[in-house]
Amino acid sequence: QVHLVESGGGLVQPGGSLRLSCAASGNILSGTTTYWYRQPPEKLREWVAWIHTGGKSAYSNSVRGRFTISRDNAASTVYLQMNDLRVDDTAVYYCRAGDFWGQGTQVTVSS
User: Which residues of the chain have pLDDT under 70?
Assistant: First the structure.
């Protein structure tokens, strides 16, 4: 059984930064594309970013230039560095690898 555990969420002021982590049991992250999604309050879940096993990455238009996804295969962890956070970045953030999802971590951007 694969487990994904997100961490690093919290409350931050607009313009601030957070780094989310997605840690996986086993070695699944090194062998598959890993995704970050988010679900804002009362909205549908949306894709944020992905990173391929070879390191190639992509971002949604709403976060491109502010968020950076990276991976540490040795640590079986994928990160999401979030800079210049905005109020509308407030959401529960989830990572996904294959068919497996984490439980999510809350990010709240508020003054």
Answer: none
* Phi and psi, residue 3, nearest 5°: -125, 135
**Backbone phi, psi, residue 61, to 5°:** -60, -30
45-77 residue pLDDT tens:
999 999 998 889 999 999 999 999 999 988 899
Edge to edge, the sheet with strand 67-72 lists: 4-7, 18-24, 77-82, 67-72
Contact predicate 64/51, CB 8 Å: no
**For residues 53 and 37, what is the distance between their CA atoms, to the nearest angstrom?**
18
Q: Which residues are CB-neighbours of 48 under 8 A, at least 6 positions away?
A: 35, 36, 37, 38, 59, 60, 63, 67, 80, 93
